[in-house]
Automatic annotation (TrEMBL):
SUPFAM superfamilies: L,D-transpeptidase catalytic domain-like. This is Murein L,D-transpeptidase YcbB/YkuD. Keywords: Cell shape, Cell wall biogenesis/degradation, Peptidoglycan synthesis, Transferase. Residues 323-477 form the L,D-TPase catalytic domain. One of its GO terms (biological process) is regulation of cell shape. PANTHER family: BLR7131 PROTEIN, L,D-TRANSPEPTIDASE HI_1667-RELATED.
């Protein structure tokens, strides 16, 4: 493009100064010249001030929601240019930002910024309907930055999240700090684990994989005989070959032999598939599981996208703690991490639909061995009083007693709390505890509690937490768990615990897991995102 020299500008403006400085306050006419026509101007003629910002947002009124954050960017940088270098050329980050904004679908984001054609004109003058001046270009790119970070990195307002029942540890994204980091290293725009929960990027890779599956069009319906109770090893039929192909597509099989025989290779793939979907691990394939496999690939794409959105709501530091516990409610699983490694995985029972386990973060502070169970007033009213009216030995037969107006169950193996419970103070009165109802842990569906988390490996968790505490050797822990007297252990170091809700999750081995939408939160989130 033709370069306009300072001399030509002076002629066009019509001044006859014998000497003229680009730093002169009178050099205001330059700003009306379209960006696509100017290439050789000092950065000092791209001023930004509050008045210019105000004028810009009056002209582009649909962008006013971004005005506050854009103004903050310039206040932080003392109103210096962000997007132009000393030669008045756009810096590489500007074009990268534009490219990433044009590829929002890769981030599972739907939408388009207003005045998109005007922004396109910054990078392609042939598409510019209304060419921008230099200072308009500068501010417009800052708007684009705020828009992109808000759509891809930022979470929802805390109040909005709490209305959704989401009280997990959230993020506090600093747009100015992030911009400074990007100006130093533009590649962070694509992947910045300081500003985004690391699970997000794992799900993004999975999203790309499933979109490729969709493009190939190989997600065919598996045909099966509904009268057959289960398909089992060494069965041979066309359905088996179709299941084999589906598991190959999803990555549970390394190759597709197209065999109709349910052989050892397929057995291993079925076990892998069942673990990923939270099913009890066996070789039987039920009609219900085939129905699950027959859900359209778009169902899984949508599920991944919804959970990427949830990742935006999570503090990026959450999984970087030296030690923490995480319960994924739809997975019916608890995981205990120390020094970046998972040291325990346990099945759990969570709250039933009418008594849902709440999503929040807290800290485990106390372990109670051989705990009493204090019956909630609701259970006293709905169950215990009626039981006592029918049977005078109702309390004693259940090892219960009155205690200052409360009903409590004495410590012991049949206590509803089991042998140990883990307390993390919270307004929901939720905690982890052992249970005598061990059979529940063998079920695929495990939402039967009144909201607390029933833990299968409670003894193992107590031993691991206290492993390095000389006051609690292993034999003392077991002794305390099997007494008829309650005892407390106050932890020397509190352990963060997060009760989360993810229906798609990629583990530390890069294996993608899907879980049923236990409380209908996926469906509601999808509706909310459409608004």
């Amino acid at each position: 493009m033709r370069k306009i020299t300072l001399f030509v500008i002076v002629i066009l403006i019509g001044f006859s100064f014998s000497s003229f400085s680009l730093y002169s306050k009178e050099c205001t006419q330059v700003f009306a010249v379209p960006f696509s026509q100017i290439q050789e101007v000092s950065p000092s003629v791209i001023p930004v001030n509050k008045q210019l910002i105000t004028t810009f947002f009056k002209k582009y009124s649909n962008l006013q929601p971004y005005q506050s954050k854009v103004t903050s960017l310039y206040v932080n940088r003392k109103f210096n240019s962000i997007w132009f270098n000393a030669d008045c050329e756009l810096i590489p980050l500007a074009r990268l930002l534009y490219s990433k904004t044009n590829s929002l679908e890769e981030e599972a984001v739907e939408g388009c910024i207003d005045y998109k054609e005007t922004i396109d004109g910054i990078f392609d003058s042939n598409t510019a309907l209304h060419p921008l001046s230099y200072n308009e270009t500068e501010i417009m790119l800052s708007v684009l930055y705020v828009y992109y970070i808000q759509m891809v990195y930022d979470d929802l307002d805390r109040i909005q999240l709490q209305k959704k029942g989401w009280f997990l540890q959230g993020k506090d994204l600093n747009y100015n700090e992030f911009l400074d980091a990007l100006l130093e290293n533009p590649k962070l725009l694509d992947r910045a684990e300081k500003y985004q929960f690391s699970q997000y990027y794992k799900l993004r890779s999975a999203l790309n994989k499933y979109r490729e599956i969709e493009k190939k069009g190989e997600w065919n319906t598996i045909e099966y005989d509904s009268t057959i109770q289960n398909y089992k090893p060494y069965d041979s039929c066309r359905t088996i070959s179709q299941i084999r192909h589906r598991l190959y597509i999803m990555g549970d099989l390394e190759k597709d032999s197209q065999s109709q025989l349910y052989d050892h290779e397929l057995m291993n793939a079925v076990l892998r598939y069942k673990k990923r979907y939270g099913y009890y691990a066996n070789y039987f394939i039920s009609p219900q599981q085939i129905k699950q496999l027959n859900l359209p690939v778009q169902h899984y794409i949508k599920k991944i996208a919804l959970n990427m959105e949830r990742c935006r709501w999570v503090d990026p530091e959450l999984d970087k703690a030296d030690e923490y516990l995480m319960v994924n409610i739809p997975a019916f699983k608890l995981n205990y991490f120390k020094n970046g490694q998972r040291v325990l995985e346990s099945n759990v029972v969570v709250g039933q639909d009418l008594m849902q386990t709440v999503i929040f973060s807290a800290c485990v502070k106390t372990i109670v061995f051989s705990p009493y169970w204090y019956a909630p007033q609701s259970i006293i009213d709905s169950e215990i009083k009626s039981g006592m009216s029918r049977d005078k030995n109702y309390l004693e037969s259940r090892d219960m007693e009155w205690n200052n107006g409360d009903v409590r169950q004495r410590p012991g193996p049949q206590n509803s709390m089991g042998l140990v419970k883990f307390l993390f103070p919270n307004s929901n009165d939720i905690y982890l505890h052992d249970t005598p109802s061990k059979a529940l842990f063998n079920l695929d569906y495990r939402a039967y509690s009144h909201g607390c988390i029933n833990l299968q490996k409670s003894r193992e968790l107590a031993h691991l937490i206290l492993k390095d505490d000389p006051d609690w050797p292993a034999d003392c822990i077991d002794w305390a768990m099997n007494r008829k007297e309650e005892s407390y252990c106050e932890l020397k170091n509190e352990i963060p615990i997060h009760l989360a809700y993810f229906t798609a999750w990629v583990d530390e081995y890069d294996v993608l897991h899907f879980y049923d939408d236990l409380y209908g939160r996926d469906a509601q989130l999808e509706i909310d995102l459409r608004k």
